[in-house]
Amino acid sequence: RLPVPPGPRGLPVFGSALEIPKECSWLTFAQWAKTYGPIMHVSCMTSSIIVLSSREAIIDLLEKKNAVYSDRPIMTMAGELAGLKRLVAFAPYGQRHREGRKLITGALGPRKAPELHAIQEAKTLVFISRLTESPAEFRTHIRWLVASIVLEATYGITIDSYDDPFLLEVEKSLAEISDVSAPGAYLVDAIPSLKYVPEWFPAASFKRIARETRERSYALEDKLYQAARRQLDRGSATPSFVADLLKHNYDPTQDDHTLYAEVAVMFYGAGADTTVSSILSFFLIMATHPDIQRKAQAEVDSVTSGRLPICSDREDMPYLGAVLKEVHRCNPVLPLALPHYVREEDVYAGYRIPAGSTILPNTWAILHDPELYPHPDEVIPERYYDCSNGDLNPDPQDFAFGYGRRVCPGRTLAEDTLFIVAASVLASFNITSVVPLKGETIEYRGGAISHPDDFACGILPRRST
Ligand code: HEM
């Protein structure tokens, strides 16, 4: 038998579970990869994790062998007990997952771009005026902006403020989902047979937590979906994902409704925190790199000549495009993507990849590899201009949005939102003077989603500076 890839030995029974930090585990994995190489085996309680830290390994396995490497690990607490495996991002690779993805890619394809751009541009206009009125609250405005774009595009629901009761309910449910899916948080994930323990049993509070999370997320999914249906019945529906599905299916079965509701709820679940984190990184990078900001503003000004930017300006603003590539490279929002899973044993580079391994692509390690991106800790938009060596500076967006048949289906929506926000902010404001709100410097943190530490920054209307 071939050996498994090299990796830290860890402790008996626990393996390396106690050495993997809950925050920024991608940094620890990147450090270990310097010793053990780009294909690393990490044992963690009863499971095997294979961490991939090179572009070649990720392409060879997750892209070229995507039929084998597109499953998701079985998460007993989140997936089974809390019912999340019904949702596209957590679903096992198979028919239901494919159906869900097909609906999302259809709804976000080029045909739908004009409708989506209209929503993105209108909401960004309101965002700019709110930012002018209360710049110190830029975080709240960013969260409102992303929520209002996603909920309008998915359900046709208008959200006026970040305190909207509907939105607070959605955020609460998401926080619960994030709690139950935190790796290592529940013993039942390491010992799946515990799932059979009855809820009343002492120390089985995880069963109650899972049931409550499941019930609340189902109720919310239904509430949002029914709100969109009611608008259609009243004839007041604006173009949206749900309205479009129901307009094209005159006689939906109960199974259709269930599928549509499950897929719709994914837009916010997968698209809100991720997009917010990228926009925050954009603000941080602009505030800390005034020269880059000025250069991007000059480009925006020359294209728009005084009007506000629109989504179709994107291809005329290559420098801003390069800045946004750096935003994704410096802070890949999902630094380990989402975990993939391999059901069958495989062989790669002389190693055995055991059946049932969780596969973690270390996107952060690739986007900070000095062999691929010279001076990886510096923000250098110009790095994408030099095409003389085709192996250097590959487009970070091809990594930041994941891999193979699990690649993010919301990429275009996310990129367009980031672009219109960035271009409109640059046209309207100078972003200055960053102040860390905790500690001395601003680091990127997080468990699964990476985001910058809290910071304050100056946001001054350009006409007054
Ligand atoms: C900056 C914003 C975003 C980033 C960086 C991002 C990145 C990612 C990544 C890395 C994955 C995991 C891919 C993998 O497993 O290999 C993913 C999955 C996913 N994303 Fe995004 N995403 C963003 C925004 C969005 C938006 C706006 C939507 C809305 C539709 C969305 C929907 C999804 C879905 C449904 C999945 C699961 C796909 C599957 O399992 O088949 N994402 N995203």
From TrEMBL:
InterPro entries: Cyt_P450 (IPR001128), Cyt_P450_CS (IPR017972), Cyt_P450_E_grp-I (IPR002401), Cyt_P450_sf (IPR036396), Cytochrome_P450_fung (IPR050364). Pathway: Secondary metabolite biosynthesis. Transmembrane segments: none annotated. The keyword Ribosomal protein does not apply. Its cofactor is heme. It is found in: Membrane. CDD domains: CYP64-like. It is a single-pass membrane protein. It comes from the Eukaryota. It holds the Pfam family p450. Keywords: Heme, Iron, Membrane, Metal-binding, Monooxygenase, Oxidoreductase, Signal, Transmembrane, Transmembrane helix. Belongs to the cytochrome P450 family. This is Cytochrome P450. It comes from Rhodofomes roseus. The lineage of its organism: Eukaryota, Fungi, Dikarya, Basidiomycota, Agaricomycotina.
